[in-house]
Amino acid sequence: LGRGHQPALYASRGGAARRLIRRLTHRDTNSSIDDVGAPFCPDANAPKDDSDPLDLAKKDLKDLDDVQRAARNTITVAKAFRKVAGVPTAKHPWPKWGEPLAEGCFPVNFEANVDDSVNPDFIGRVAAVAMQDFKTHAAKHAKLLNAPNVKLTEGVLEEFAKGSFRGFRNVYKAQFDVEKEQQAKKNASNSRKQSRRRTRYDNLISVVGEYRDTYGTDPTELLSVDFLSDDGSGPEDGAEETTLEWKRRMAVRAGLTGPAATDARLTKTKFFENIAPNWRSPALTQILRRLHELWWSKLTIKAVLGMGHYVRDTGRLTDKAPYSTPFDMGINRTWYETHKDLTGYAHWLKGWFTFGNPSGF
Hints:
Layout: H1 8-12, H2 15-25, H3 55-58, H4 66-74, H5 78-85, H6 119-136, H7 138-145, H8 154-174, H9 178-205, H10 208-215, E1 230-232, H11 243-254, H12 263-266, E2 271-277, H13 282-297, H14 301-305, E3 309-311, E4 317-318, H15 333-339, H16 346-349
Parallel strand pairs: 2-3, 2-4
Antiparallel strand pairs: 1-2
Helix pairs in contact: 2-6, 5-6, 6-8, 8-9, 9-13
């Protein structure tokens, strides 16, 4: 090939357009901090410290403070990644490299490294789309994005997009490998749980005003995506119980009887089983439940009918600790004393019972 020419495959998948987009949106991975763009901040006057913006994406989670950990749990580019690639949900397979793409979709090459082939251009586009989404929903993320050491730039979002690339590449490869497919399904389940926690966090935050009016205290500081329960949409991993057997059990707990409890109906019915975290205190659990009840009371009948059945107090528990440090009143002290010196817990729990409590609690 002569200089300046690309293979036919690359050209057919939009090579020229990708090169243009690269010039417009992509920054090399070795760019200095000054090159990654000014941080997006909902409050233009919010002060920022002199930490490296890329710390948020590149540092180990254990080396971040609680605010940065919360930001990392909140910032996600997976939706933008799928949008740019034209793969809207986990039910849609990733196109094999070389297959034609739908109009408007950008090629991603999971058979190459993240910094090779068309991937840098793709990553740059994902970052730009994700940034626009954060700007559109700025109010929802204002508290975190205004923090001094949380600096959301397209350079940071590119690093998150690279992480998504590696995760989605495993899914892509799993489409052709049974063992990897099983691991990919487990990862997808964890992602769905995290997504449901984010949605619930948004729901609870939306009724903080009503909670304050009803109970006289503001629970905002007690809320974190990290502190919310997971929901299981099926039996526990490794359980002998089948999905239908699990749904039958959930139907009993939800009070479903008659035609609504037939196997034919249950196969189409959504259930979510609360997985209660053992580390969390009854006091914090009560606050979260009160917030949930306030939010639930505002739903229309149509919205309620579309929610599925949420089942609590089944005895499904987890000892997984949150990445962020809770306030003292949110910690189950008995659980803490049992786990604080155990391998796998000692590092994460070393800052517990040092934060005190917010005003009013």
